């Protein structure tokens, strides 16, 4: 039986259809509301609004569940790897052996950038944040790859997708190398995706560099855990930009810009900087007090999540990786880590954090791992951007193929002046 709800506004009763999803709460369809009742809905932050249909990722915030195309993130983290997850997100199913080999071949053969893009980097100041460089360079890709800009051509959409997944690590590594004044490293196609990224970031021409498999595995996991996350702020930004028909490179550049904010992808950088600022375990109570103070804008970075109100399943897996990496590098006792462990312990017991369901999120642990690997904090968000590119593209492709898709155009609750007449300057 089709479900519906009745909305009474004054004398008028409006029937609103209710859709039942595969998983999650029912969804009230208000598309005809304005036409039939002459009212808008008001939902800043979209806390109760589904903006699209999707089959890619599912999150149950209360259960702490994250599924990519139905597969639990814990199983993927244990048994899969990043490029396989990319295939799954993009095409909906796990690849068979031939499909996996073909996909990896196509990604690997697209890792190099157009040589002229190298000159583009030089226009940036050396002290530019790598995210600033990435927003610019990814946006500029639309000026280099004219054969993959037509969003109505499925082949061009496919090539654009492969190009971005393949080239984002190269761009991020170049942004990093540029910022520290070292020569760029070309991609090494005999390495896997994560290992190649580590090589491009850490190898120098004067020495040979061997990728540590434990670090490559941890990097692969970071990428996998960040690959998609449903309709978060940056993904919604990509969809909104794409809804106007903008080219895919411009859309992903918009996503990167949104991700940069400290409430979203920028939280991993902000979290590690906060741990360093706290510095020693004895200063933690002062920061906990500030986090609870309503008049202080300070928040404990790396804690809390809009959707996960029990635990962040990504954080659980990431914590295991953090222990593995720190054990390997023999730095379990560094001061930042001690602050992190103690902060986690206190916050998990503190009434304020427990009652508001504020748990460490994925960024709390990913920052610790990336720091241990030798990345500066400014590279944390670019690594998130590399990882999320496949999610953004999958969601963008899904949107283009959706027959109900329209240009995104929210309405507003206008509280400004009513119509008034212009007053000449001399009379003001
Ligand atoms: N420290 C202290 N108090 C907090 C925190 C925090 N990190 N997060 C939320 N609160 C409080 C907040 O003050 C509010 O209190 P009250 O009800 O008394 O007004 C309550 O908890 C609910 O917070 P909210 O701002 O309504 O929650 P939200 O769903 O809008 O925000 C969030 C989610 C992630 C933006 C927020 O928790 C936050 O700013 N966390 C720190 C930044 C961070 O770690 N972000 C990374 C998220 S995971 C990576 C990603 O997916 O992007």
UniProtKB/TrEMBL annotation:
<dbReference type="InterPro" id="IPR010953">
    <property type="entry name" value="Citrate_synthase_typ-I"/>
</dbReference>
<protein>
    <recommendedName>
        <fullName>Citrate synthase</fullName>
    </recommendedName>
</protein>
<comment type="pathway">
    <text>Carbohydrate metabolism; tricarboxylic acid cycle; isocitrate from oxaloacetate: step 1/2.</text>
</comment>
<dbReference type="GO" id="GO:0005737">
    <property type="term" value="C:cytoplasm"/>
</dbReference>
<dbReference type="InterPro" id="IPR002020">
    <property type="entry name" value="Citrate_synthase"/>
</dbReference>
<dbReference type="InterPro" id="IPR016142">
    <property type="entry name" value="Citrate_synth-like_lrg_a-sub"/>
</dbReference>
<dbReference type="InterPro" id="IPR019810">
    <property type="entry name" value="Citrate_synthase_AS"/>
</dbReference>
<keyword id="KW-0808">Transferase</keyword>
<feature type="active site">
    <location>
        <position position="363"/>
    </location>
</feature>
<comment type="similarity">
    <text>Belongs to the citrate synthase family.</text>
</comment>
<dbReference type="InterPro" id="IPR016143">
    <property type="entry name" value="Citrate_synth-like_sm_a-sub"/>
</dbReference>
<dbReference type="InterPro" id="IPR024176">
    <property type="entry name" value="Citrate_synthase_bac-typ"/>
</dbReference>
<dbReference type="InterPro" id="IPR036969">
    <property type="entry name" value="Citrate_synthase_sf"/>
</dbReference>
<keyword id="KW-0816">Tricarboxylic acid cycle</keyword>
<dbReference type="Pfam" id="PF00285">
    <property type="entry name" value="Citrate_synt"/>
</dbReference>
<dbReference type="GO" id="GO:0036440">
    <property type="term" value="F:citrate synthase activity"/>
</dbReference>
<dbReference type="GO" id="GO:0006099">
    <property type="term" value="P:tricarboxylic acid cycle"/>
</dbReference>
<feature type="active site">
    <location>
        <position position="305"/>
    </location>
</feature>
């Amino acid at each position: 039986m089709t479900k519906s709800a009745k909305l009474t506004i004054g004398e008028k009763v409006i029937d609103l259809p209710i859709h039942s999803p595969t998983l999650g709460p029912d969804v009230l369809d208000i598309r005809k509301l304005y036409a039939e009742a002459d009212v808008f809905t008001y939902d800043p932050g979209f806390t109760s609004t589904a903006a699209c249909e999707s089959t890619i990722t599912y999150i149950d915030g209360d259960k702490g569940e994250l599924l990519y195309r139905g597969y639990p993130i814990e199983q993927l983290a244990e048994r899969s790897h990043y490029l396989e997850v990319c295939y799954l997100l993009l095409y909906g199913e796990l690849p068979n052996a031939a499909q996996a080999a073909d996909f990896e071949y196509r990604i690997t053969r697209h890792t190099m950038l157009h040589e002229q893009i190298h000159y583009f980097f030089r226009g940036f100041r050396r002290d530019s944040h790598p995210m600033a460089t990435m927003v610019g360079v990814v946006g500029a890709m639309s000026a280099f790859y004219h054969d993959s800009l037509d969003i109505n051509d499925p082949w061009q959409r496919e090539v654009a997708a492969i190009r971005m997944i393949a080239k984002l690590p190269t761009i991020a590594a170049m942004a990093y190398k540029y910022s520290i004044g070292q020569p760029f490293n070309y991609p090494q196609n005999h390495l896997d995706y994560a290992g190649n990224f580590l090589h491009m970031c850490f190898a120098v021409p004067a020495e040979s560099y061997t990728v540590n498999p434990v670090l490559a595995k941890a990097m692969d996991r970071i990428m996998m855990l960040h690959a998609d996350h449903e309709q978060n702020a940056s993904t919604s930004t990509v969809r909104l930009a794409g809804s106007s028909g903008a080219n895919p490179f411009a859309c992903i550049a918009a996503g990167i810009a949104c991700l940069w904010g400290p409430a979203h992808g920028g939280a991993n950088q902000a979290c590690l900087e906060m741990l360093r600022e706290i510095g020693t375990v004895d200063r933690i109570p002062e920061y906990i007090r500030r986090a609870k103070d309503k008049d202080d804008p300070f928040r404990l970075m790396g804690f809390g999540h809009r959707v996960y109100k029990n635990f962040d399943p990504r954080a659980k897996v990431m914590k295991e990786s953090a222990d593995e990496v720190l054990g390997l590098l023999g730095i379990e006792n560094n001061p930042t880590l001690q602050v992190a462990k103690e902060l986690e312990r206190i916050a998990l017991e503190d009434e304020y954090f427990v009652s508001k369901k504020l748990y460490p999120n994925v960024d709390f642990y990913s920052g610790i791992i990336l720091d241990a690997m030798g990345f500066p904090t400014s590279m944390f968000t670019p690594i998130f951007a590399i990882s999320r590119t496949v999610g953004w593209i999958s969601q963008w492709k899904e949107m283009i193929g959706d027959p109900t898709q329209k240009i995104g155009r929210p309405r507003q609750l206008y509280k400004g002046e009513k119509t008034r007449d212009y007053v000449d300057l001399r009379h003001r």
